[in-house]
Amino acid sequence: MIKRLWPRSNGQVNPPSIQPRGGRVRGGGDDTRTGSFPIVRRKPPRTFGSRASRIKALTSLLVAFLCALLGFGYVIQVHNTKSSYEGLSEEELVRLLDETSTQVDKLEERKSQLGEQLRSIQSSADKQQEAARIAKQNQVSSGILSGALPAQGKGVQITIVEGQDRVDAATMFTLLEELRNAGAEVIAINDTRVVTSTYLKDDNHGLVCDGRKLVSPYTIKAIGDPDALQNAVQIAGGVGSRIKVQFHAQVTVEQSNSVRIDEIRRPQRYQYAQTVE
């Protein structure tokens, strides 16, 4: 008689259940009776829920935004640089060329004067006496440039009468710069002498120039080539036209063979700077 290792059930062979040494294997769906294996679950991906991930993402977005902003500013700067002269008319370009030529001529003239003075000192028997003479000669020109001495000569007188709108400080400063570029050697606005340290700012009642209040009408006196100074103000599309159109003001320019500027500036006292002996 043959003994069966396991009984038949409905014609099916059911193998015996074999338990592992440690008992049942933990894990979902793991059963030795069905022959299934443990399921190894993958770790869930990191989300933005963690603090470190949020900080990293925000940092990346901030860096990308700054790079985009920097690139945009660079493109705008390059575009403005290229188009700064493209929008000017032929007359404005000619005026800029004349102003640049005038400045170059003045620099060359000053260079020649300094060279002659240096050669005069080197060839003189009494170098100290010659140096004192040249210093006294330069004192007059330095006093005029620094505003310490009054001056007179050919030039123009500009009168600006405000309308409904007030002329702002930026536009008035542009007018002074245009006169300087056109070769103005001495400038005064109302009762204030214009020097290298002159500033303009807006005030509730008008303009402030070097701490002094200015009110309309504004009178600007400039010594230099009358034709060049007048063209700098009245050229089409220039600062004179801007004052008329934008601020509805009256602008008149008069040439004169004798423009007298009596306004002077007191010498500035320096707290830290000293002369070199």
Automatic annotation (TrEMBL):
Residues that span the membrane, as ranges: 55-76
Keywords: Coiled coil, Membrane, Transmembrane, Transmembrane helix
Cellular component, GO, one term: plasma membrane
Short name of any one Pfam family annotated for the protein: DUF881
Coiled-coil zones: 90-124
Organism superkingdom: Bacteria
Chain segments carrying region Disordered: 1-45
Matches recorded under InterPro entries: DUF881
Keyword Coiled coil included in the entry's annotation: yes
The name this protein goes by in its record: DUF881 domain-containing protein
Organism encoding this protein: Bifidobacterium xylocopae
Organism lineage: Bacteria, Bacillati, Actinomycetota, Actinomycetes, Bifidobacteriales
